[in-house]
Amino acid sequence: MEGRVYVSPTKLRKRSETSAVQHQKYYEPNVDATGVELHKDSKFYESWQNFKDNNPYVHKVMDWKLKFDESENPVIRASRALTSKVSDIMGGLFQKTELSETLTEICKIDNSFDTKRFLKQCETDIIPNVLEAMTRGDLDILKDWCHEGPYNLFAIPIQEAYKKGYKIESKILDIDNVDLVMGKVMDQGPVLIVSFTSQQVMCVKDAAGNIIEGDPDKVMRVNYVWVLCRDTSEPDPRAAWRLLDLSASSNEQFV
């Protein structure tokens, strides 16, 4: 990670586009999602929501960054200096076996799977494509990478801004601290939860150039927890991961 500089991708890709170039044997054009696939997606999302709602540990992870970074408690503020990883504080709450079971399940689908390489893929490919699509208002890319829940979370404000003739002038400056928090094997397939931080400039302007929301001169540090699910029917790892759920909290970056 040392010395790495974030480079914003000039062209965002859909999941299948890289497989077309780099994994010819896996590539089958499938432009129109069938009703069956949509049904499978919504079942997966529903199954995840049920699991999350009934699992206090997952709730803690999804809420942890929010509470940790916004807390005024001096003990928590002091501990912030010691750690920035969810797993360091929450580690005792999770069964290590669940993560290893999930990784074993992923290796059955993709025997070349490697945790470090996966985190690198998150940092350099999955996260930039989704975050950049969000800041550029690219709904097509978002729809490809996201399940219905996170897609709507991103798309609704973007659509509202477009309707009002606003311009989104947000920017991703950096992505770091990508960490694997926990895993879960769902009926529909394995799920991995990652946390990371990004530095972003958030700004929305109207047609006349007036700032409606955000500040082009203020850098925000955003803490994310993302739930990524592995499509078991897709052999190409660069096309197989999609965003199933997320939580985020932001504060101003003081240099």
From TrEMBL:
<keyword id="KW-0653">Protein transport</keyword>
<dbReference type="GO" id="GO:0005524">
    <property type="term" value="F:ATP binding"/>
</dbReference>
<keyword id="KW-0597">Phosphoprotein</keyword>
<keyword id="KW-0547">Nucleotide-binding</keyword>
<keyword id="KW-0811">Translocation</keyword>
<dbReference type="InterPro" id="IPR039544">
    <property type="entry name" value="Tim44-like"/>
</dbReference>
<dbReference type="GO" id="GO:0030150">
    <property type="term" value="P:protein import into mitochondrial matrix"/>
</dbReference>
<dbReference type="GO" id="GO:0005743">
    <property type="term" value="C:mitochondrial inner membrane"/>
</dbReference>
<dbReference type="GO" id="GO:0051087">
    <property type="term" value="F:protein-folding chaperone binding"/>
</dbReference>
<keyword id="KW-0813">Transport</keyword>
<comment type="similarity">
    <text>Belongs to the Tim44 family.</text>
</comment>
<dbReference type="Pfam" id="PF04280">
    <property type="entry name" value="Tim44"/>
</dbReference>
<feature type="domain" description="Tim44-like">
    <location>
        <begin position="99"/>
        <end position="248"/>
    </location>
</feature>
<protein>
    <recommendedName>
        <fullName>Mitochondrial import inner membrane translocase subunit TIM44</fullName>
    </recommendedName>
</protein>
<comment type="function">
    <text>Essential component of the PAM complex, a complex required for the translocation of transit peptide-containing proteins from the inner membrane into the mitochondrial matrix in an ATP-dependent manner. Recruits mitochondrial HSP70 to drive protein translocation into the matrix using ATP as an energy source.</text>
</comment>
<dbReference type="InterPro" id="IPR032710">
    <property type="entry name" value="NTF2-like_dom_sf"/>
</dbReference>
<dbReference type="InterPro" id="IPR007379">
    <property type="entry name" value="Tim44-like_dom"/>
</dbReference>
<keyword id="KW-0809">Transit peptide</keyword>
<keyword id="KW-0472">Membrane</keyword>
<keyword id="KW-0999">Mitochondrion inner membrane</keyword>
<keyword id="KW-0067">ATP-binding</keyword>
<comment type="subunit">
    <text>Probable component of the PAM complex at least composed of a mitochondrial HSP70 protein, GRPEL1 or GRPEL2, TIMM44, TIMM16/PAM16 and TIMM14/DNAJC19. The complex interacts with the TIMM23 component of the TIM23 complex. Interacts with SLC25A4/ANT1 and SLC25A5/ANT2; leading to inhibit the presequence translocase TIMM23, thereby promoting stabilization of PINK1.</text>
</comment>
<keyword id="KW-0496">Mitochondrion</keyword>
